[in-house]
Amino acid sequence: MEKLLNELSSESAAAYNVACDVESDCVIPENLKRKSSPGLVNIPENDLQRHFTNLSRQNYALSTVFYPLGSCTMKYNPLVNERIAKFDGFNGLHPLQPEETLQGALEIMYNLQKDLCEISGMDSFTLQPAAGAHGEFTGLLIIAKYFKSVKQKRTKIIVPDSAHGTNPASAAFAGFEIIPLKSEADGSINPEKLKEILTSEVAAIMLTVPNTLGVFEKNIAQISKLAHENGSLLYYDGANLNAVMGYARPGDLGFDVMHINLHKTFSTPHGGGGPGSGPVGVKAFLEPFLPVPQIEIKNSKYILNYKKPKSIGKMKAFFGNFPIILRAYAYIKALGADGLKNASGQAVLNANYMLSKLKDKISVPAGGRCMHEFVLSPKSVFQNGVHTLDVAKRLLDYGYYAPTIYFPLIVEEAIMVEPTETESKETLDKFIEVLSKIILEESVCDSQKVKDAPVNTSVARLNEVEAARKPILKAVGN
């Protein structure tokens, strides 16, 4: 394990020089002088550099390893977009500046909203929400206010068990009652089961398309028809938009409200809790309810319109997470329509290639075809008390970050893999080889090695519950 700085320090190492630029005739008052040494560590510069470099190498990063993290799109993002987001002209802006001095930034946000409308088939967007779940909450508040405006009391939201886990939480937070809907084996919705719970109290159905098993909703046209005939709305969780982008638009599929995860789909390094941005798009009849301010053009100038009497109000300080907006704008403009479509096509191709190599060896609950991600269930292969968590830990020993495990909850011992569009065939082949070796060989022949994993990392397996609830954030003496 890497030593702490105070452990590396040595009194014999003259590692720093404190220069004093105070003129000699300037006397420092006694009350301002230190009473004791500042306790600076003595470490030569090269040792200090190696210390922090070695620490950084203990982290898993897209710049060093493959991240097969299902449902999160941990893909490589062009570094040029990072540079664009750091331009002085953007970083020097302040959101309280007068509108006339923010015209460039407002133009970018206005144009990004238009681009998102084109990509999604929606009529209007807001860039305010800070992340996907915040976008869900915003969209649900819009739905609630819409029904209040038409004097309908609709208090329930239908959420299938194949939807993203934040959906029921967001709906409950927005004040709705959740009606769970059991999906079919492949995660799809049975229209007949939907009919049984569609009542005049249902405000909306929240769907993730493709669903969390990586399967496109084959009954979407019928579901949309049933929902709208019931007077209900259809909400699209855009977390998996990168699987259909350029091929299908949620607005054309019948969805009325949706959020897009800019940080998953459009060029922001995602992980470790952020950063994020979750713009919300709506059909025209819901546009009056979008958060304020809305960016509009008046007399050839971009303005911030706060005068929207039906608006749900402000959802975030100022106008959105601007650095994330910049990255998304640069990504979309660089790729264009054909490039975005190709990104989706490559993501789906990579996922199906991996699935084709694994489906005859390991159980695949949703069948042999998928969209951008797939879910394995190796329960029938495991022997001698090995579980999916053990496989995830063993992958660390081979230098891979683990895929998503135990999600979706409807699959026992689930392993969710999302290769994304940016990984090479060579990378995919190596991961397939390692994953197959762990599940099909080590878990059977050398199960103890898998259950003891990881053994090559700087820290052995943690008690994850204790680590999350009672983290030790400083060094503890012997």
- CATH topology of the largest domain, by name, is Aspartate Aminotransferase, domain 2
As a whole number of angstroms, the C-alpha radius of gyration is 26 Å
Total helical elements? 15
Q: Averaging pLDDT over every residue, what do you get? A: 92
Based on secondary structure, the structural category is alpha/beta
Domain Glycine dehydrogenase C-terminal: 343-448
GO molecular function, one term: glycine binding
Pfam family, one: GcvP2_C
Cofactor: pyridoxal 5'-phosphate
Can you describe this structure?
This protein has 15 helices and twelve strands. Helix content is 36%, strand content 11%. It has a seven-stranded mixed β-sheet, with helices on both faces. A three-stranded antiparallel β-sheet has the order 10-12-11, covered by helices on one side. The chain has a two-stranded antiparallel ribbon with strand order 8-9. With 478 residues, it is an alpha/beta fold. Strand 8 (294-298) and strand 9 form a beta hairpin. It starts with a helix and ends in a 9-residue tail after the last helix. It has three domains: 5-57, no CATH class; 79-335, Type I PLP-dependent aspartate aminotransferase-like (Major domain) (Aspartate Aminotransferase, domain 2, 3-Layer(aba) Sandwich), CATH 3.40.640; 343-469, Aspartate Aminotransferase, domain 1.
Task: Give a nutshell description of this structure.
With 478 residues, this protein is of the alpha/beta class. The chain has helices at 5-8, 45-57, 79-85, 88-91, 103-120, 132-149, 166-173, 191-197, 220-229, 262-265, 322-358, 388-397, 425-445, 447-452, 464-469, and strands at 124-126, 156-160, 177-181, 202-208, 233-238, 257-260, 280-282, 294-298, 301-305, 374-376, 404-405, 415-417.
